[in-house]
Fold this protein.
Amino acid sequence: MRLTRHHILALLAGGDAAWWQRLSARRNPQPEDPAVEEEFRRIREQLPEFRDLPPYFAWDSLSAEMKGNILLGVEAGEVVRSRPSGRAIGWRAGFALAVLTLLMLVGYWGQLPVHVHDSDSGPQTPLLQATPGQLAARHRDAGFSVLFHESGASLELSGAVGGVRADFVDEETGQLTVAHVYLD
Amino acid sequence: MYIWTSARILVMLAALASMVGAQPRATTVQSNASLQQYLRMELPSNSPLRHVRTDWGRSRVVQRGSAASAELHLIFHFENTASQPVHGITLLFRTSGVAPGGKASVTLPGLRVKPGEQFPAKVDLRLLQPVTAGVHPSFEVRLDGVLFEDLSFAGENTLNSKRLLTALEIEIQQDRQYLKQVLTAEGRNGLGQEMRKLLALQAELPRVDVRWARHSRATAMPASDAVQFAFLSLPNSPLEPLDASVRIAGHEAVSPRMRIRNRSSREIVYAELGWIIRDLDGREFYAGTVPITSNKLAIAPGGEAVMQEDNVLQFFELSKGVGSPREFPIKLGEMVGFVSQVQFADGSIWMPNRYASNTPLPMRRVRITPEQQRLASIYLRQGVDALVAELEK
């Protein structure tokens, strides 16, 4: 903002002008309107009377009143201010989402492999197992298996020294299959 | 009324997801490149089969805690490059870097693959090994043998695949031939009636598990004195049982002893006995077949041999229904044996014909063969027309 000469003069009279404004005013004294000069002179004489607040002025009360007004204004503004409301859904939809989440969790756990450990610790000596679903050779936590999905009653399991056998009809392919597992 | 904002639901889901993510779950690897290190296939250059490709399907490697499990759900695609139809194959899987060491085999009998045709071989395997073992486990796949239409065989035969495939093929051909005769004589209605009888018998027959163990009795029950057991007299059997006895203890048949004679003109090098047992309530069970001896057999033409080993046969009935079957020991009342398979020194095999008119009835009454089950399944699912098409292959 560009200040007029009158503004600068007012600042000079109050002692609030910047240093370069004071320097400029001293170097370039300009004739002024006698009425204006008279006015400034009168104000300058009265300034000392305004430097101190009057004794009856209760600054603390005024401060508290101003603070109260500000807070009241803020509260009033909150009431009348329009704001976007969140998209609300009913409790049924919320319940449905919760059930969906539960299904997701159950499905997740259901996908976890459950046959990685058939038991906490495997057999201490090499063992052959023939059970519906797999022929297995196991020793401690290690081993190998032939897996199968047999179709109901088509399974025949048998075992002899050193090996186990399963005869079955594969459920997916319909192929007659004979599986053996042997220990060395 | 509860108000659920979408923001709150998202926060809830994120929290649940983070809880789930914090669980010590398994790490799963499913890329084929990662899985292929668990399998090595080796086919000889003169193999009658060409490996076309392998489908890895749902195969995966799961690492959980200190153990790694490779589940291989494989479909091998082979092409018959021989000059005659393939009727069966055996794939051998040798483990490497896994304890206990061992091997597995998958035999597919009853194939009807013409020269130049491709066919799938489905195999499901699992390897389990602690990560700390520091050794990479794997399966080496080999072709142990191929059986052709004329019952000739090609392959390494390290697992006696020739005998197994030949015996299965003979049984399959007997079953198919019988049903073809029924179709010719009685038409599709007669064939359907025969299959319905089979399905009814299948539902009625108990499931039996027989185990053969050496020097290992599972019960402290004292065994009976040796009792004679009967043999079914089979026409044209090259092996004649002269006398046989066994001691019985609950569900165990202890130390069976038998004297047998080779009445053929060829040396016998292998034989199996089938067992039909009756429990104390008079119920009949087919109890499978077991080798007549665990040692090497050699009976010259006309010669006799006595088989007695410190072995135990254990018999269990498997429950039917949903879920894993439970085992119930069968209280043995009576045992009947029959010669179910004989192999000669020249590799040829003799098996009794279940459908011969002079074959004892219990041979057919107490057992349904795997091929009969397969054909019954085709009839049940696809009808008599599909069954006729299958028999014409």
Remarks:
- Residues 127-182 of chain A form one domain.
- Chain A has five helices and seven strands.
- The beta strands of chain A are 88-89, 127-131, 134-139, 142-147, 156-160, 163-169, 176-183.
